Fold each of these.
Amino acid sequence: MKKRIFVVISVMVLFVLTLAIFKIVTQKEDAILNVGYSIESLDHAPIMIIADINLSDKYGIKVNLIPLKGGKEVREALALGKIDFGLGGVGHFLIPIAKGAPVKIISFLTESPTQIFVRPDKTVTKFSDISGKNVASRIGGSSNLIFRFILKKEGIDTNTINFLDIDKTITPIALMNKKIVDLALAGDGEEPLYYKAGAVLFEDWVNKGYANEPFPKSVIAVNTDFSEKNVDDVSNFILAIIDAEKYIKEHPNDAAEIIAKHIKKGSAGAVDYSPEDIINSWRVTKYVLWKDPNVLVEFSKLSKELGNTPKELSKEQIFDLRFEEVLKNGQAEIYQSNN
């Protein structure tokens, strides 16, 4: 009898061990996703949240953050397949897409008005004052695209303006101290840096309502060679982004602390936002997941007209619409809006 019980127990133990070993052997390893972003950009805060509170573990993915210097480096790395995902301005990604690179946008990220700063000496107050001036702006970025769109509307020939692509960490100094530029387009969340430097908003920009007009700014793009082979991983990455935006919405103080520390550490102290600065920036910069993709079609028309891209693009050429439903649902749940 005892021998029989021993045999039964042994068989059960062996069975359990076999199942455990099978599970270990067959268990899929977490996918490693290489994500390019700007470590100094508040637009890219959701990816910082994912990294810092390990949201990606929930979905069986590991997010490997790769700091890059602005949208230009991000788009180039994405087009070459050196990264799987890239965060950056809308205008940056229209360029490789129009040139046939394996890139598509998968989600919107932020929307906000573009702000333009000048020195408080009243030398530049009207649109008519801009001709012949030096403007600090990221060439190909969404703010640059929007600014040129407004200039065209105001009848200003952009060929009479000198656009200078200056590192955003020193642009306030270039404007106020060195006086290398006469106007500066501030990226989202960078306004406090200009106010601290003593700069003021461009008067005509404010008076004509452009300072309060929101435009899509940052988006998330994917290398399509990667996405075609890893649809589930892309879907899980989007779910992690949705969770990150939900965390920011529900825990703004904690999120601001995380983001401030992430940016300060990553920039070696060159950019030092306080949590209060970050929370204040959210009064203007809004995180989004979904908007009508046709707005990007209009952007592509302008980009073609300005000579930034070789052709206009359709909605399907710009956007990977396979994730539309989950993004719409996330937008509705978090922001009570379908945009």
Amino acid sequence: MRAFIAIDLPENIRATLAQRQAAFRAACPEARWTRPEGIHLTLKFLGEISEKQTGQVNEALCALGPVEKFSIEVKGFGFFPDARRPRVFWAGLEAPPDLEELAKKVEAAMSKLGFPVEGRPLTPHLTLARFKIPRPQPALQALLEPPLLGRFEVSDFYLFESKLAPQGAEYRKVLRFPL
């Protein structure tokens, strides 16, 4: 199965993002918009894994050691790599060092199983859209005020399965890991 490790969002945050996406979509219809039910905070993309590897991932993540629950604020918007040549449009996240600690523990555990180490530091974000052609999006930028979109407590994370489909990726929670 194609898999990744991520923090899921509560429904109130997902609903707020869906409302904002509706307004953004009108300003930028050519973007490929992430379906609201698919928005999540990725900690580690694994790619294709076997049933045996799924068991190893489960064991490794169960053995991570203690990580305290923490809160995240969903706040503001931006572009990767930048607004002049955007490939990704995202909602920003403000989180305590606990998020980075969790991500590092997940990365280290997966590295021991042979998964490649991510070369870049964690930049917490929620992907809202992707652009096929990286060019400025002035109509979209005109709608971006830096609001606080909500706050939520992280008390668990998941191993997700990702199935690619013509209408976009579909995600299924496979395993839950409480903090």
